[in-house]
C-alpha cells in the first residue's frame, strides 16, 4: 500500500479502470475457451460422421465382394477345379468390375490355378499370404493385408472365400484383390475440405491409401507409433489429437472395421483436420473481442485522463496550493471553485468559509493588538511623566522598569545602570536586611504591608529616606510584582 500511496490520483484512476476491466477480460477469455471447446467438439462430430460414411462404403464393398465370392464358390467350374473355365469366368467378372485388381483361385496348398490376368500355371504360390491362411483357418470370408499382387503387380488388399466340397472340405480358395487407387472414388464422393487428410490402413497399420498423397507417404508406409499408442487396443472408433505425418497438429477421428465379431480389425479409416483451422473462427472471435476490449479500455483511460484531470486533479491542485498558501500565512487565500453539491464543491466551500472566519478573527486580533499597543504606549508615557518615582520588579527583586523620577532619586542615568548595580549597594545595611526579609516573604507568598519606609544609597553615596507604596501586579506564582 505504501507503494500506491506515492502514486498520483491520475495514475490511481487509470489503475482503477484497468482493475474494472479485468472481470470483462476474464469473461471474454472464459467464453473464448468455451467456444474453442465447442468448436473442437463440433469438429470431432463432423469428422467422425465422415469416417462412419467412408466405413459404410467400405463395408458395402466387403459385403458385395463376399457375395461375389460366395456365388463363384457354388459354380460347377470352380467346384471341379476347371482352370480354363475359371479363367474365362474370372476375366468376364473383372471386366465388369474394374475395382478388382485380379480375381483368382488357388488350391489349399497355395498354388494358383486360375486368374483373370495371364500367368504361367504352377509359377505362383500364395501359401504365405495372410488371406489364404485365414480362409483355410476360419473356413469363412477373410481379408488380407497390404500387398503388391504377384500376378497383377498392383498394390491391393485381398479378400478370400473358401470353396468347400460336399464333405465341407476346403478344395480351393477364391481371391478378389481390391485396387488401392480405387479409394480415390471414395474421396470424390466425400469432397474433403482443404486442410483435411484421410487415410486407410490394414491390420498391421500399413497405409493402404492417403489423401492427399505425398512422395514421402505412399501405400505400404507404416503409420507412426504416436498414432497407434494413443488408440486403445479394444477401441472401434473415437478421437485422438496428434502431430500428423506432415508435422501438423491435427484432430483425428478413426474407425476400425472387422469382418466378424470378436475378430481383430482388418482395416482402419481415419480423417484428420488441422487443429488451428478448426479453431480459426473461435480464435478470430477471441482476438476481435480482446481487441475491442483493449480499444474500449484505452478509450476509457484516455477519457479518465482528460476528464479526471479537469474534474478532479486540477481542483485538487487548487486545494493543495490554497492550503499551502494559507499555511504560509496568506489568510486572504480563497479557492476558486464552484460551491456545488459534490465533494470537491463542499470542500472548497468549507475551506473558504473557514478562511473567511480566520481572516476576520485575525483582523480583529490585529486591531486588538494595535489598541493594546497604543494603550501600553499611553500607560508607559503616563508612567514616564509621573512625578512619583515608579519601579517594577520581579519577585526576586530584579528591576524590570523604572521611570525617570525614580532614576533621579537614585542618581542613575538609565535603567540598565540601576539593574547592574547590586541591591546591597542601593540600601543602607539595615534597609538591605529588611529588603532580604521582604524578599523571602514574597517568594513564600506571605503577606506584606502595602506601605513601608526604607533608606537608600544614591549613586553619589548620599542616603535618602523614602516612603514606599507597594502594589502587586501579578500573583507570586507568576513571578512578577
The CATH topology name of the domain at 74-179 reads Beta-Lactamase
From the alpha carbons, calculate the radius of gyration and give it in angstroms: 61 Å
Report on the biggest sheet.
Answer: 5 strands, antiparallel
Tell me the overall shape.
rod-shaped
User: What order do the helices and strands follow?
Assistant: HHHHEEHEEEHEEHEEEHHHEEHHHHEE
Poorly predicted spans: 475-481
CATH class wording of the domain at 74-179: Alpha Beta
Query: Ends: how far apart?
Result: 59 Å
At a glance:
This protein is α+β, with helices and mostly antiparallel strands and 481 residues long.
Describe this protein's structure.
Helices cover 49% and strands 20% of the residues. A hairpin with a 5-residue loop joins strand 11 and strand 12. Residues 475-481 have low confidence and may be disordered. The protein has 481 residues and is of the alpha+beta class. The strands form four sheets. Strands 2-1-5-4-3 form a five-stranded antiparallel beta sheet, sandwiched between helices. A five-stranded antiparallel beta sheet has the order 7-6-10-9-8. It contains 14 helices and 14 strands.
What is the secondary structure topology, with strand pairs?
Layout: H1 2-5, H2 9-73, H3 76-79, H4 83-96, E1 100-106, E2 112-115, H5 130-138, E3 142-148, E4 155-164, E5 170-179, H6 183-190, E6 196-202, E7 207-211, H7 225-228, E8 237-243, E9 249-257, E10 267-274, H8 275-278, H9 280-327, H10 343-385, E11 391-393, E12 399-402, H11 404-410, H12 415-420, H13 423-426, H14 429-444, E13 451-457, E14 463-469
Antiparallel strand pairs: 1-2, 1-5, 3-4, 4-5, 6-7, 6-10, 8-9, 9-10, 11-12, 13-14
